[in-house]
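Title: Prediction job returns without error message
Component: structure pipeline
Severity: low
Priority: P3
Assignee: unassigned

Description:
Job completed but the reporter wants confirmation the result is attached to the right record. Sequence as submitted:
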Amino acid sequence: MGLFDLFKRNETASTEKKSRIPWIPLISADELDTLVSKSSKRPQLIFKNSTTCGISSMALRSFEAQYDLNSEQADLYMLHIQHNRPLSNEIAQRFRVRHESPQLLIIKNGSVVKEASHGVIAEVSIEKYL
């Protein structure tokens, strides 16, 4: 086994770990409108992530490790703020929440019912909002 094989194996393990979370990329205002519409049927979660922030990476890993819902219970959207800061700002304005990263928003019936950022994300009991 060569050095590059070791990196490939770690990359595969990382991908497999992430694939158990059914993330939906959030990249447009139209998708945000759809998310709001769908929130009348079941909760919609938005995870705002900074791909260059260590705290954001830790919060995301912690969230993924403890996430235990099936795809019927909620939809999970990922917004990478470096790629779409205007949409992140629109979310803050539309839902009247302060922009944070990392940040978790739980949306039901078109409104944010729970917002958490940084280390507090790990303390959110999503099941309470189903």
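Comment from assignee: result matches the submitted record. The CA atoms of residues 26 and 32 lie 7 Å apart.
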